[in-house]
Amino acid sequence: MEGKIIIVSAPSGCGKSTIINRLLQKGEIDMKFSVSATNRQPREGEVHGVSYWFLTDEEFRQAIADDNFVEYEEVYPGRFYGTLKSEVERRCREGHNVVLDIDVKGGVNVKRMYGERALALFIEPPSIDALRVRLEGRGTESPEAISQRLGKAEYELSFAPSYDIRIVNDDLDKAVADTEKAIKQFVGA
Ligand SMILES: Nc1nc2c(ncn2[C@@H]2O[C@H](COP(=O)(O)OP(=O)(O)O)[C@@H](O)[C@H]2O)c(=O)[nH]1
Ligand SMILES: Nc1ncnc2c1ncn2[C@@H]1O[C@H](COP(=O)(O)OP(=O)(O)O)[C@@H](O)[C@H]1O
Protein backbone atom coordinates (compact mmCIF):
# COMPACT_ATOMS: atom_id res chain seq x y z
CA MET A 1 0.00 0.00 0.00
CA GLU A 2 1.24 3.51 -0.81
CA GLY A 3 2.48 5.62 2.10
CA LYS A 4 0.64 8.70 3.28
CA ILE A 5 1.66 12.34 3.51
CA ILE A 6 1.67 14.19 6.83
CA ILE A 7 1.86 17.96 6.47
CA VAL A 8 2.91 20.06 9.45
CA SER A 9 2.64 23.85 9.08
CA ALA A 10 2.78 26.80 11.46
CA PRO A 11 4.20 30.28 11.71
CA SER A 12 7.93 30.30 12.42
CA GLY A 13 8.74 29.54 16.05
CA CYS A 14 5.50 27.69 16.91
CA GLY A 15 7.43 24.49 17.55
CA LYS A 16 6.83 22.35 14.47
CA SER A 17 10.46 21.19 14.17
CA THR A 18 10.54 20.38 17.89
CA ILE A 19 7.32 18.34 17.68
CA ILE A 20 8.34 16.50 14.51
CA ASN A 21 11.78 15.67 15.93
CA ARG A 22 10.28 14.30 19.14
CA LEU A 23 8.02 11.99 17.14
CA LEU A 24 10.85 10.87 14.84
CA GLN A 25 13.03 10.14 17.88
CA LYS A 26 10.27 8.11 19.53
CA GLY A 27 10.11 6.09 16.33
CA GLU A 28 6.67 4.61 17.00
CA ILE A 29 5.16 5.88 13.79
CA ASP A 30 6.59 4.71 10.47
CA MET A 31 7.34 8.07 8.87
CA LYS A 32 10.34 9.57 7.12
CA PHE A 33 11.17 13.26 7.20
CA SER A 34 11.11 14.93 3.79
CA VAL A 35 14.28 17.03 3.66
CA SER A 36 13.40 20.21 1.77
CA ALA A 37 15.69 22.24 -0.43
CA THR A 38 16.35 25.89 0.41
CA ASN A 39 18.62 28.70 -0.68
CA ARG A 40 18.85 30.13 2.86
CA GLN A 41 22.13 29.87 4.77
CA PRO A 42 22.54 26.97 7.20
CA ARG A 43 22.17 27.84 10.89
CA GLU A 44 24.85 26.65 13.26
CA GLY A 45 24.52 22.90 13.68
CA GLU A 46 22.33 22.36 10.62
CA VAL A 47 23.65 19.59 8.39
CA HIS A 48 23.29 19.45 4.59
CA GLY A 49 20.92 16.63 3.72
CA VAL A 50 19.57 16.34 7.28
CA SER A 51 17.87 19.68 8.11
CA TYR A 52 17.74 20.85 4.51
CA TRP A 53 19.47 20.43 1.21
CA PHE A 54 21.22 23.81 1.16
CA LEU A 55 21.40 25.03 -2.45
CA THR A 56 22.86 28.14 -4.05
CA ASP A 57 20.44 30.48 -5.83
CA GLU A 58 21.62 29.01 -9.12
CA GLU A 59 21.17 25.40 -7.96
CA PHE A 60 17.67 26.21 -6.72
CA ARG A 61 16.76 27.81 -10.06
CA GLN A 62 18.12 24.75 -11.87
CA ALA A 63 16.08 22.40 -9.66
CA ILE A 64 12.94 24.36 -10.62
CA ALA A 65 13.88 24.18 -14.32
CA ASP A 66 14.50 20.42 -13.99
CA ASP A 67 11.00 19.97 -12.50
CA ASN A 68 12.45 18.44 -9.32
CA PHE A 69 9.86 19.92 -6.95
CA VAL A 70 6.45 18.72 -5.77
CA GLU A 71 5.97 22.37 -4.71
CA TYR A 72 8.13 25.35 -3.80
CA GLU A 73 7.49 28.80 -2.30
CA GLU A 74 9.34 32.05 -1.80
CA VAL A 75 8.58 32.01 1.94
CA TYR A 76 10.56 35.18 2.72
CA PRO A 77 11.77 37.68 0.09
CA GLY A 78 14.53 35.95 -1.89
CA ARG A 79 14.35 32.84 0.35
CA PHE A 80 13.00 29.79 -1.43
CA TYR A 81 11.99 26.45 0.06
CA GLY A 82 10.78 23.42 -1.86
CA THR A 83 9.64 19.84 -1.39
CA LEU A 84 11.68 17.54 -3.62
CA LYS A 85 10.01 14.75 -5.59
CA SER A 86 13.03 12.61 -4.70
CA GLU A 87 12.15 12.89 -0.98
CA VAL A 88 8.49 12.01 -1.34
CA GLU A 89 7.60 9.82 -4.29
CA ARG A 90 9.87 6.78 -3.92
CA ARG A 91 9.27 6.48 -0.18
CA CYS A 92 5.51 6.63 -0.66
CA ARG A 93 5.70 4.00 -3.38
CA GLU A 94 7.68 1.81 -0.98
CA GLY A 95 4.85 2.17 1.55
CA HIS A 96 6.47 4.64 3.96
CA ASN A 97 4.63 7.64 5.32
CA VAL A 98 6.38 10.95 4.76
CA VAL A 99 6.25 14.03 7.02
CA LEU A 100 6.62 17.50 5.52
CA ASP A 101 7.55 20.62 7.55
CA ILE A 102 6.35 23.27 5.12
CA ASP A 103 4.90 26.77 5.11
CA VAL A 104 1.17 27.49 5.10
CA LYS A 105 0.83 28.02 1.34
CA GLY A 106 2.85 24.91 0.52
CA GLY A 107 0.79 22.96 3.05
CA VAL A 108 -2.51 23.96 1.47
CA ASN A 109 -1.16 23.14 -2.02
CA VAL A 110 0.12 19.70 -1.02
CA LYS A 111 -3.19 18.91 0.71
CA ARG A 112 -4.99 19.85 -2.50
CA MET A 113 -2.64 17.63 -4.56
CA TYR A 114 -2.87 14.53 -2.38
CA GLY A 115 -6.43 14.87 -1.01
CA GLU A 116 -7.39 11.98 1.26
CA ARG A 117 -3.83 10.62 1.17
CA ALA A 118 -2.63 13.67 3.11
CA LEU A 119 -3.27 14.84 6.67
CA ALA A 120 -2.75 18.57 7.16
CA LEU A 121 -1.80 19.60 10.72
CA PHE A 122 -1.53 23.20 11.83
CA ILE A 123 0.47 24.05 14.96
CA GLU A 124 -0.70 27.21 16.71
CA PRO A 125 1.10 29.30 19.34
CA PRO A 126 -0.68 30.10 22.62
CA SER A 127 -0.24 33.80 21.68
CA ILE A 128 1.86 36.07 19.47
CA ASP A 129 3.75 37.20 22.59
CA ALA A 130 4.69 33.60 23.38
CA LEU A 131 5.87 33.24 19.80
CA ARG A 132 8.15 36.27 20.17
CA VAL A 133 9.65 34.82 23.36
CA ARG A 134 10.30 31.47 21.64
CA LEU A 135 11.93 33.02 18.57
CA GLU A 136 14.13 35.17 20.80
CA GLY A 137 14.90 32.18 23.00
CA ARG A 138 15.89 29.99 20.05
CA GLY A 139 18.57 32.54 19.28
CA THR A 140 18.97 31.59 15.63
CA GLU A 141 17.64 34.75 14.00
CA SER A 142 18.69 38.40 13.96
CA PRO A 143 16.24 40.93 15.50
CA GLU A 144 15.26 41.91 11.92
CA ALA A 145 14.53 38.31 10.95
CA ILE A 146 12.48 37.84 14.15
CA SER A 147 10.41 40.94 13.30
CA GLN A 148 9.93 39.62 9.77
CA ARG A 149 8.71 36.26 11.07
CA LEU A 150 6.38 37.82 13.68
CA GLY A 151 5.04 40.23 11.06
CA LYS A 152 4.07 37.28 8.92
CA ALA A 153 2.62 35.18 11.74
CA GLU A 154 -0.83 36.74 11.76
CA TYR A 155 -1.22 36.30 8.03
CA GLU A 156 -0.07 32.69 8.37
CA LEU A 157 -2.51 32.03 11.22
CA SER A 158 -5.34 32.97 8.85
CA PHE A 159 -4.62 29.72 6.95
CA ALA A 160 -5.43 27.54 9.98
CA PRO A 161 -9.10 26.92 9.01
CA SER A 162 -7.94 25.25 5.77
CA TYR A 163 -6.14 22.53 7.74
CA ASP A 164 -7.62 19.20 8.88
CA ILE A 165 -6.46 19.50 12.49
CA ARG A 166 -5.26 22.41 14.65
CA ILE A 167 -3.02 21.83 17.63
CA VAL A 168 -2.09 24.51 20.17
CA ASN A 169 1.52 24.16 21.27
CA ASP A 170 1.34 25.54 24.82
CA ASP A 171 2.48 22.60 26.90
CA LEU A 172 4.98 20.81 24.64
CA ASP A 173 4.31 17.29 25.95
CA LYS A 174 0.59 17.72 25.35
CA ALA A 175 1.16 19.11 21.85
CA VAL A 176 3.42 16.14 21.02
CA ALA A 177 0.81 13.70 22.38
CA ASP A 178 -2.03 15.37 20.44
CA THR A 179 0.02 15.33 17.23
CA GLU A 180 0.99 11.70 17.74
CA LYS A 181 -2.61 10.69 18.32
CA ALA A 182 -3.82 12.48 15.18
CA ILE A 183 -1.10 10.94 13.00
CA LYS A 184 -1.57 7.42 14.40
CA GLN A 185 -5.29 7.63 13.75
CA PHE A 186 -4.64 8.79 10.19
CA VAL A 187 -2.03 6.19 9.26
CA GLY A 188 -3.78 3.43 11.19
CA ALA A 189 -0.79 2.69 13.47
N1 LIG B 1 6.53 25.59 0.91
C1 LIG B 1 7.55 25.08 1.60
N2 LIG B 1 7.89 25.61 2.77
C2 LIG B 1 8.92 25.05 3.44
C3 LIG B 1 9.63 23.93 2.95
N3 LIG B 1 10.61 23.61 3.84
C4 LIG B 1 10.49 24.47 4.86
N4 LIG B 1 9.48 25.34 4.63
C5 LIG B 1 8.99 26.41 5.52
O1 LIG B 1 9.80 27.56 5.44
C6 LIG B 1 9.64 28.31 6.63
C7 LIG B 1 10.97 28.78 7.16
O2 LIG B 1 11.72 27.69 7.60
P1 LIG B 1 13.08 27.91 8.38
O3 LIG B 1 13.94 28.87 7.64
O4 LIG B 1 13.66 26.56 8.69
O5 LIG B 1 12.66 28.70 9.67
P2 LIG B 1 11.79 28.33 10.97
O6 LIG B 1 10.40 27.99 10.52
O7 LIG B 1 11.87 29.60 11.74
O8 LIG B 1 12.45 27.17 11.65
C8 LIG B 1 8.87 27.40 7.60
O9 LIG B 1 7.51 27.81 7.60
C9 LIG B 1 9.03 26.05 6.99
O10 LIG B 1 7.94 25.20 7.33
C10 LIG B 1 9.22 23.40 1.68
O11 LIG B 1 9.77 22.43 1.16
N5 LIG B 1 8.20 24.01 1.06
N1 LIG C 1 5.60 24.27 24.05
C1 LIG C 1 6.71 25.00 24.04
N2 LIG C 1 6.96 25.82 25.09
C2 LIG C 1 8.09 26.59 25.10
N3 LIG C 1 9.03 26.62 24.13
C3 LIG C 1 8.83 25.82 23.06
C4 LIG C 1 7.68 24.98 22.96
N4 LIG C 1 7.75 24.31 21.79
C5 LIG C 1 8.90 24.70 21.19
N5 LIG C 1 9.55 25.60 21.94
C6 LIG C 1 10.83 26.32 21.65
O1 LIG C 1 10.49 27.36 20.73
C7 LIG C 1 11.54 27.54 19.77
C8 LIG C 1 10.95 27.43 18.36
O2 LIG C 1 10.61 26.05 18.10
P1 LIG C 1 10.91 25.35 16.68
O3 LIG C 1 10.57 23.91 16.84
O4 LIG C 1 12.28 25.71 16.22
O5 LIG C 1 9.82 26.10 15.78
P2 LIG C 1 9.49 26.06 14.23
O6 LIG C 1 10.11 24.81 13.68
O7 LIG C 1 7.98 26.03 14.17
O8 LIG C 1 10.05 27.32 13.68
C9 LIG C 1 12.61 26.51 20.07
O9 LIG C 1 13.65 27.12 20.80
C10 LIG C 1 11.86 25.46 20.91
O10 LIG C 1 12.74 24.80 21.80
What does this entry show, briefly?
This protein is an alpha/beta fold and about 190 residues long. It is about 45% helix and about 20% strand. It has one domain: Rossmann fold.
CATH superfamily assignment?
P-loop containing nucleotide triphosphate hydrolases
Number of strands: 9
Q: Calculate the terminal CA-CA distance, rounded to whole Å.
A: 14 Å
Which range does the strand content fall in?
15-25%
From the alpha-carbon coordinates, what is the Rg to the nearest angstrom?
16 Å
* CATH class membership: Alpha Beta
Using the 3D structure, state the CATH architecture: 3-Layer(aba) Sandwich
Question: Main sheet, how many strands, which sense, barrel?
Answer: 5 strands, parallel
Please, how many domains?
1
Tell me the structural class: alpha/beta
Shape: globular
Number of helices: 7
Q: Give the names of the bound compounds.
A: guanosine-5'-diphosphate, adenosine-5'-diphosphate
**Helix fraction?**
40-55%
Task: Describe, in plain words, how this protein is organized in 3D.
- The chain has 189 residues and is an alpha/beta fold.
- The protein has a single domain (5-184), classed as Rossmann fold.
- The protein is 43% helix and 22% strand.
- The protein has 7 helices and 9 strands.
- It has a 5-stranded parallel sheet with strand order 2-7-1-8-9, with helices on both faces. A 4-stranded mixed sheet has the order 4-3-6-5, with helices on both faces.
- The longest helix is centred in the C-terminal third of the chain and has 16 residues, at 172-187.
- The chain is globular and about 45 Å long.
- The two termini are 14 Å apart.
- The model has no long low-confidence stretch (mean pLDDT 96).
- Adenosine-5'-diphosphate (ADP) is lined by residues 10, 12-18, 134, 137-138, 169, 172, 175.
